[in-house]
Amino acid sequence: MAKIYAELVHKGLRTIESVPKNLVSEVKLILAENGWEYDGETAPLKTSKKTRKSTKKSGPPDSCPNCGAKGSTSIEWNPNTDISVCQKCGWTNKQD
């Protein structure tokens, strides 16, 4: 919902005052992240308690950057940890 309100504020169809109070800080954060203005002012970029973390997984690489092995039979990917391991050379994207 915050993204929708941010777009409406950006387009001038809503004001920041008309956004539900529980969404104002998140809407301001979205406006700031996009460099959008509201009520004639650029949204200040502040760290919010509700800072959203990306939960998007990167997935396995198309080929091993170490030995060049290709395909899902050569690269094993664990979606829970987002770690890939090459079955041919043992390369891993795990960062210590």
Structural write-up:
18% of the residues are buried. The chain has two helices and four strands. It has 96 residues and is of the alpha+beta class. It has a two-stranded antiparallel sheet with strand order 1-2. A two-stranded antiparallel ribbon has the order 3-4. The longest helix is centred in the N-terminal third of the chain and has 10 residues. It folds into two domains: 41 residues, no CATH class; 43 residues, no CATH class. 21% of the residues lie in helices and 12% in strands. A hairpin with a 4-residue loop joins strand 3 and strand 4. The radius of gyration is 21 Å and the shape is rod-shaped.
Helical stretch tally: 2
Provide the helix percentage. Answer: 10-25%
Rg of Cα set: 21 Å
Going by helix content, strand content and strand pairing, the class is alpha+beta
How is the quaternary structure best described? single chain
Q: Topology as H/E string?
A: HHEEEE
Uncertain residue segments:
45-49
How many discrete domains? 2
The portion of residues forming beta strands comes to 5-15%
Shape call = rod-shaped
- Spatially, the strands of the biggest sheet line up as 1-2
Average pLDDT, all residues: 76
